[in-house]
């Protein structure tokens, strides 16, 4: 028998499945243009389905009588996969680069609170060699009673900070109705962890002409993160930076648990750059440096950290922001480790 | 000493905090109009802060030097809390009710696939005594390659099904830009689990004049669910139904783990009705009835279940939909248990 | 080609696997007496391995060059599986029964604190129709500074309570060196959640001649629970009662999250009786009744609840123990629901 | 008012608590020799309890009428805490050291399979500069059908490997009845993740005169790990090495999720050395080096890795063992990073 493709799916029939039930599954596969390769057995017959991935994914095989398990053999993503494109993607914004041997050092305030705080922070991080400036204009907050960001006013302040420092700007988009305002100002559009599964928003930035920094959802698997990136790339925007920012676990000593293993796993699965956000993972300033060092050592393509001139007065995430005055030391520790790892700040 | 309020926050200073650090915290609290009640100690000084909840929540106390922990004493939600309104809220749509002794039996297809499937299902569930009709027009899907729902065409079909059966319509809203179309057709607007933290969308339905069915996020705590409801109610819409639909755990035998304890906990915390979605929790048809029975026995105000005329042909969630032909038996089991619990289908 | 068995394992080779790597896997399978069924493909070759489960499980196939995934097709347990023994097991101790249509109502103090408290509780639960008496002599405690149980002295008190009430006794074994003392006194030996993976202890009770009540580990999957039961049964003791007692999740409103779906899933997978511990799951007295009702409605074969004459004086788990004076009402609610479900207290 | 201690506990009364209920709590605290500091309030009265930690921990305050929450202010561990002993503990075995600026490089086979494999691996790791030899004699296995280790025969082989290489020996103890045999042979006694809450075993090694390597439970918090260490130290053995080895999360790309943040958190909380096991965390050989590098960069005091002469023939954990031939390169990468971090192999 000539098998010309490899199975996309393995369908394991239950021990009690009848011959008719096996035939029904085969018939449905063939109806969908797929080839069915049956391995009959005493206990469990296994059917390999060979065909177009999209067509097979759409078949409701788990609902068929006699079907016990449907095991996908191939990865559900393709455009973002390293198999498709073995060379690492380098993403550029205003001449700064992330990916391959360029390490991105993105720093700035959690939130734009006012002009002085933002400009002061921007100057400090630029002076210490950061490669991009981060800053929140629209803030997703768990409570409707806490500060929600300055919105469009913040975008104006951030644009001024970019003007002065030359650093490209990373800022978050939360609502598809703000897409124009954010895309106009931002150099890199951030999609926050709470919006990783906001599929309308993903499709929207997939049509934008700016790179996207996509954060992993608070309890998303890496496969789900890659699928979210696939949503963006499928719409035409292949400039996506993935960001590990900590996941929910039972541990309470830190705000989230930084999944450091995500870095080598993602680097193996995808050609997209992978960065780490140690500030949100830790939620505690004293852990930001050890986690940032671990990120570099694990092979990350960059980090994104929060910096504030006076963290104890911050309106948001004060406990995890690094004082601007200490950022220089922080940056040189990172630079030394990058150098050992064969990287340069991009 | 006259204490006129009770502490909203307890601030535990670290063992090494200096007197100046304690004074700084007190000064900042008083600056914000709060009263600070200091309990000095050999190891850890504790400061109770008495004042306006919103003002205190905005203070970045965790970032202050010498502060070890900030413990909130009061719940972060208030409009949805049972303390504010001890009597249970009853929510009505086209004469059908959910809450107090009215049990909501919401049933219908996962997704509107075509006119026949939808009308057939609607008739079956109406005939068996369902009190509302569910059906998806816009579907959030993890993969960009799977069926995303028929969109506005589905809304027209659902409206026809309502016309014929008289059942009020529950359908999901995913994108703030669809709000008009969905609000025009739906009797109850569903916010899906993946959008529980989509704060723009929550605010949007908070301004709509239709009840909202709010599903718990896949790894959200009950407090986070109540805060999401608070977002909606704060905008003026107090007609919110909460829905437990299973959370992510390590267990793989079911798609999600139904948190049955969420029912009595939520009933105690809030005046809003609390329903259960056994179909999405289980992901397997054979578990839907036992989970639905458990929901009634635990005191839920309703259930929402998926029904399909031929689940093995469903384009979405086939394995968990109940065949329309079996819904009558299902409904009578639920009715018997409701009756033991002192409830009637609303 | 004559295939005489069904595959136990599917070995998915990576896209880059060479022909030699495929041949090596096949050779190793055949060396182990298994038959290898190769489905070659453009992207991923799949090898089905047909042979003795134990032999295949021992092969380190995941370590072979070119192997991408090893997918087990059959369940790893067999002695406890319903496929082996389709009829439900009924477990008897001193004439009381659990399983099939006998519902076990096990009640008693968390811990034996002193003679009076234990006897008083035993009388109250016996009078209200409990079918077995629980009580802890050895207590696993997270802190070395808290009360660890009265040990052998408690066993003597429990034996007296049994003498007086006639109720069979359920008590926990924690240390293989106490096995004789506990087995001598207990009618049912409890293995606590923290010892579910204490494989030496499991083997030990597998050699005892008393039924075993095996609690699910705090973050164990149902498959892991069934494997733990398999350890016991494999040593010759097939009288095992499984107990769902709540798992760790992110939710903090309850002590643990009762996985109510575990009941129908386990009932389907195994012939062993399945009971629920609502007291430890909830950690709060007010949730014990709703969770207990949910357990009955979901099809559990019994519940095990904590009762104390004066919970506010309890040395352990005070907040979750039901006052002895309220147990009669509790028991009659359970009895009414059992009756609707076609069960009788065994 | 003279407050002579700091509160150990804060007891938050519910909004509806009566004056009598407050008085009852105060009376019970004073009965236990504690001082009660009451902060009355409009909504929630808070009682600070000042007294002996052990006495307060034993009080069942959560069960008292009117009590809403009991918040412990001080850490539940003390002997292991850095507050008690600010200087880092250095642990020595046969002249090799772990802690402070000594980095432990522990390597060896997952399991002793036979003499040749063990001696060959021991020679390879010794030649590349490992500081200790690991090897399993007794293996905790989820399935009763898989290889359980060679037991005492393995101890003899390990002793021979130590004799030849001079490396101190780390091996696991699973059963209190093997304590003599293991303590006689081992230089460091390992307590595995599945036994972290086996309190009898912890007390047992607390009485042994050998250092203990204590692994974090699969879903244990860091506080629970520190409490387990407290069990050991309380019995008199203060030579405990803590080991982060990955925790269960929703992620499936790796076997466990390495909680890299555990390293800086533990280093801050305790004076005990903290090491990392990248092999068990990853479950995949290709991730062991990046995770090991991250551990060094995060400040770990050592790593423990699995090495095998021919991983594809290993009887256990083949996929995660590093080939002995590649260990030299591995060790030099670790050494280079240690040097940047100011550490030497101990």
How are the SSEs ordered, and which strands pair?
Four copies of one chain form a homotetramer.
Chain A: E1 9-13, H1 19-31, E2 35-39, E3 46-50, H2 53-58, E4 67-72, E5 91-93, E6 96-98, E7 102-108, H3 115-127, E8 132-134, H4 152-165, E9 169-172, H5 179-185, E10 188-191, H6 199-206, E11 212-215, H7 222-234, E12 240-244, H8 262-269, E13 274-276, H9 278-282, H10 285-298, E14 302-308, E15 322-323, H11 327-340, E16 344-345
Parallel strand pairs in A: 7-8, 7-14, 7-16, 8-9, 9-10, 10-11, 11-12, 12-13, 13-14, 14-15
Antiparallel strand pairs in A: 1-3, 1-4, 2-3, 5-6
Helix pairs in contact in A: 3-4, 6-7, 10-11
Summarize the entry for a quick read.
By secondary structure, chain A is of the alpha/beta class. Chain A has 11 helices and 16 strands. In chain A, 61% of the residues are buried.
Keywords:
homotetramer; 346 residues; alpha/beta; Alpha-Beta Plaits; TIM Barrel; 2 domains; eight-stranded parallel barrel; four-stranded antiparallel β-sheet; 11 helices; 33% helix; 20% strand; elongated; disordered N terminus
Structure explained in plain terms:
By secondary structure, the first copy, chain A, is of the alpha/beta class. The first copy, chain A, has two domains: 9-72, Alpha-Beta Plaits (2-Layer Sandwich), CATH 3.30.70.1140; 91-345, Aldolase class I (TIM Barrel). The first copy, chain A, has eleven helices and 16 strands. Chain A has an eight-stranded parallel β-barrel, surrounded by eight helices. In chain A, helix 3 (115-127) links the parallel strand 7 (102-108) and strand 8. Chains in contact: A-B, A-C, A-D, B-C, B-D, C-D.
């Amino acid at each position: 028998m000539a098998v010309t493709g490899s199975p996309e799916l393995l369908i394991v029939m239950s021990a009690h499945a009848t011959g008719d039930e096996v035939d029904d599954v085969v018939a449905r596969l063939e109806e969908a243009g797929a080839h069915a390769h049956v391995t009959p057995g005493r206990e469990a017959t296994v059917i390999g389905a060979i065909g177009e991935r999209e067509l097979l994914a759409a078949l409701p095989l788990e609902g068929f009588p006699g079907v016990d398990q449907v095991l996908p053999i191939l990865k559900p993503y393709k455009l973002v996969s390293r198999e498709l494109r073995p060379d690492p993607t380098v993403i550029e914004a205003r001449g700064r680069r992330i990916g391959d041997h360029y390490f991105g050092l993105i720093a700035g305030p959690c939130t734009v609170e006012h002009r002085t705080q933002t400009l002061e922070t921007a100057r400090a991080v630029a002076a210490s060699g950061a490669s991009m400036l981060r800053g929140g204009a629209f803030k997703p907050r768990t409570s409707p009673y806490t500060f929600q960001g300055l919105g469009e006013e913040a975008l104006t302040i951030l644009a001024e900070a970019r003007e002065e420092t030359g650093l490209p700007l990373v800022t978050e988009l939360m609502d598809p109705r703000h897409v124009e305002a954010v895309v106009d100002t931002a150099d890199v559009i951030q999609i926050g962890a709470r919006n990783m599964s906001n599929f309308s928003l993903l499709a929207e930035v997939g049509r934008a002409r700016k790179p996207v920094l996509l954060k992993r959802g608070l309890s998303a698997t890496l496969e789900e993160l890659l699928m979210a990136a696939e949503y963006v790339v499928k719409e035409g925007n292949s400039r996506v930076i993935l960001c590990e920012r900590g996941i929910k676990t039972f541990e309470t000593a830190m705000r989230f648990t930084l999944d450091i293993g995500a870095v080598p796993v993602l680097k193996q699965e995808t050609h997209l750059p992978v960065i780490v956000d140690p500030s949100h993972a830790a939620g505690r300033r004293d852990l930001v440096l050890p986690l940032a060092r671990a990120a570099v050592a694990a092979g990350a393509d960059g980090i994104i950290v929060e910096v504030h001139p006076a963290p104890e007065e911050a309106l948001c995430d004060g406990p995890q922001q690094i004082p601007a005055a200490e950022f220089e030391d922080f940056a040189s520790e990172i630079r030394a480790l990058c150098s050992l790892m064969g990287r340069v700040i991009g």
